[in-house]
Amino acid sequence: MSEMTGVIVTRAEPGATETARFLAAHGVTVLKTPALDIRLHELEADWAPINGEKLIFTSANGVRCYKEAGWSRDGFAVCVGPATTAAASEAGFQNLQNTNGDADQLVAEIIGCWHPGEDRFVHYANDAAAGDVCRRLQEAGFAARFVPLYGARPVPWAQVQFVWQSVQANRDVLLIHSAKAAEAVKDWLGQAQLDTKNMKLVGISERAVRPLMGLEWHCVERAEQPNEMKLMEALQIALEAGVSSS
Length: 246
Fold this sequence. Notes:
Elements: E1 7-9, H1 15-25, E2 30-32, E3 36-40, E4 53-57, H2 60-69, E5 76-79, H3 82-91, E6 95-98, H4 103-113, E7 120-126, H5 132-139, E8 143-154, H6 157-164, E9 173-176, H7 179-192, E10 200-203, H8 206-209, E11 219-222, H9 228-240
Parallel strand pairs: 1-2, 1-9, 4-5, 4-7, 5-6, 7-8, 9-10, 10-11
Antiparallel strand pairs: 3-8
């Protein structure tokens, strides 16, 4: 990583600390300000996995909240990518499938690998996911149910106002991990009255940065694939070259 004035990490905890630690180890000055607060919902009686169901996780936070719920990790878990798969392994899952992509790739691999009418799935995710993965699996003939295990709520401006006083709009880099975080950051930028035209925007995907594309940026970089490794590669490009990959 190239030395830089600062990279603003907006990822939710505990991922924010992981990203900040990695960047600091590579000589990057980090401003950590999580945009979302992850909260496990009060558990309902029918949310626990049913015997024989395969579990779907589309984020490491989903895995962590599942573990917090205290349910068995003996089942088979289908995970969206390497970070989610690593979180599932750390949580104690031994039977894992890493689909190594986004939700579309996960759905495609389930349809290609498993059997409608035989294999059943339960998706543990953010309540904002709205069951889209399960809907597509159901359309393909699978029994699938969605459990809104946790919520990701925007952190209000009042809680981050002091931190954002140190943002340098002439050269800082904004790192975005999700569209929902981007929505919260957009509000912060308005509250701070920051001119973003000399800032750099780096996002984990096209969808993640979309809420911020109405603002003017010095450059915009997007990860080639929606995972942390590719996001760090996109950040490196922004730090070194400052040219847009759009």
